[in-house]
Amino acid sequence: MAVVNKVVNKVVYPTVKDVMNFSGASYPSIIDDGNTVAWYDAAAAYVIKDVSDRVSQMTDRTGLGHHLVQLTGADQMLWSATGVLGDGVSEFMKTATFTFEQPEMIYMVVKQVSWANVDRLVDGDVNDSMLIYQNSSTPKLDVSAGTPSAHNSNLAVGDWGIIRVLFNGANSTFQINETVALTGDYGASDANGFTLASRNSGSNVANIEVKEIIARKSADTATDQDIIYNYLKTKYGL
Amino acid sequence: MIAIFNNAESAIEYSDKVHAFLQKNCKGYNAEKWQDINKADKAELYSVKVPRELSSTKVLYTIDKVVDSVITKVDVRVEFDKVVEKISVIEKVVKLPIDWKPIEIEIKPIDEKIITIRK
């Protein structure tokens, strides 16, 4: 979010929001255009964790308060300097319900640590409303908001990559890194929330590691997608 | 690593003790609970995840009501509030068997001594 300082008696104080957003790294202004509804970053500044690095919250960098939360200790994901890791057994996080309707755009820097059929990388606040999931055979990923996409095999297990998905009814797209985007009708369900590393219900838990996720309520143009993609690609040296 | 129990009460007791242990010993631990226990569909078996602080080299808690499971079982010991007990836990479980699922546990007031398990 834009850094707008408050001036009080000629002393400039950052707002709480500014402090939350300070990472020492710049980001594209499009993230501030009002369409970003959630932004998660595995940097320590945006994570609440205990001394054993169990993560109870990934703080929403937008300032909208759509934090990913897990208050069951055994289900808390594990933080490290490389990202936030879900064990594929029980660990996941989710937000409270918030308005997030199609068109929905997801950018995600992620690694499939292992692959298991129908495990979910992402879902919405209703089961299977905004899925990015492992399907069919390793390392295939599908997306679905009611209708599964074709399989995408372009993210090998163990590799970091950038997934971008547009859920927009008949005009949906699904792209991994700079490979050719899949297109089709992936369904019309609205997410109305965000679940990481499992189905909304907490089942189908995926063994993944995540560095950053940006969720937007817009059908980003190819140009805008590239701006955000290049920001993530450069930031993580992918 | 998970611990397997053959009754819900022991599993709940273990989960509660893990929670108390972490509240006491793990700075920043702010979970509301350690875990809702998982039940096997096809057997009276209950599992609770063992926290990484309580590995087999830094053992936690034991109880002799633990039963065998499909994976290698190891015995571990832990001192909890200066009481050393024993428990058998399962090592290196990557995923629970497919027929296991979480259940909600509703515990009635103690004087009623009733535990309701709702699938």
Please give a handful of descriptors for the protein shown:
heterodimer, A: 238 residues, mainly beta, Jelly Rolls, 11-stranded antiparallel β-sheet, 2 helices, 8% helix, disordered N terminus, B: 119 residues, alpha+beta, 6-stranded antiparallel β-sheet, two-stranded antiparallel sheet, 1 helix, 8 strands, elongated
Describe this structure in words.
The complex is a heterodimer of chains A (238) and B (119). With 238 residues, chain A is mainly β. Chain A has a single domain (33-235), classed as Jelly Rolls. Helix content of chain A is 8%, strand content 33%. Chain A has two helices and 18 strands. Chain A has helices at residues 16-21, 222-235, and strands spanning 6-8, 11-13, 36-41, 47-49, 54-58, 68-69, 77-80, 83-85, 93-94, 104-112, 120-123, 131-134, 141-144, 160-167, 172-176, 182-184, 195-196, 208-216. In chain A, a hairpin with a 2-residue loop joins β1 (6-8) and β2. The longest helix of chain A is centred in the last third of the chain and has 14 residues, at 222-235. The two termini of chain A are 24 Å apart. Residues 1-24 of chain A have low confidence and may be disordered. Chain B is an alpha+beta fold. Chain B has one domain. The relative contact order of chain B is 0.24. Classes of the chains: A mainly beta (238), B alpha+beta (119).
